[in-house]
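JOB MANIFEST
job_type = single_chain_structure
chain_count = 1
residues = 217
[input]
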Amino acid sequence: MVNKTTTQDKILDAAEQLFASTGFADTSLRQITSLAQVNLAAVNYHFGSKKELIQSVLQRYLSVLMPRLDQEFSQLLSSQKQNDLTAVLSVFIQPLLELNKVQHHGTRTFLQLLGRGYTDVQGHLRWFFNHHYGRTLDKFVLLVQQACPDLPASEIFWRLHFSLGTVVFTMASNQALQEIAAADFNENVEIEGVIHRLIPYLAAGIASPLTLSSQAH
C-alpha cells in the first residue's frame, strides 16, 4: 500500500520546518502554504488559526513525550528515598531521544520549537502547556523541590528557566557545536551525547547554594 501524505500532514510538516528555522512570529501562513503546496483555505479548515497550528505542531511531539515523562515522574515521587537531581533530570533523556521516531531529527526540532515559544513570546503556549500538561509539570517541579529542599520556590523558578535557556541555545547551535567538537577535539558527538553532557551541568547549576545576594532578594 502506498503511504499517502494527507493535506493536514503536509501543512504540519511545512509549518514545523519553517517555525524551527525562522520562528513563529516571522513565519507567515502564506509561507507555510507555499511550502506545503496547499491553499490558505486548507489551513483554516484543518487548524482554524495560526495559534492552533503552532499548538498542533508541538502536540505531535508532546503527545508522545509528556505521558512518558508523567509516568517516570510518578515513579520517582512514589519512591521512599530522596531523589538526586541528576537522576530527576536524566528522566528526560530517553523520552526526548524517542522523539526522533516522530520525525527525522525530532529531538532537536522539538527543543528548537520549544525555544521559539519563549523567544517569540507566544503567550498562548503557556496556557496550552498548563491546560494540557500542568499536572505533569507540577510533578517535575515537586521533584526538583524535593531534591533541593534549601531553595525557595522563587529561586527554583528562575533556575529552571535559566536551564531551559541553556537547553534551547545548545539545541539551536547543535550542528555547529558538533562540527567544532569534531574539528578541534576529534570528537564525534551525536544528539544523545550532547544531552548527556548537559545533564550534570544543569544539575550543578540548579542545585548550587544560594549566594548572599540571592538570599537578600
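[summary]
Residues 42 and 48 are 9 Å apart (CA to CA).
Residues 58-207 form a domain with the Tetracycline Repressor; domain 2 fold (CATH 1.10.357.10).
exit_status = 0
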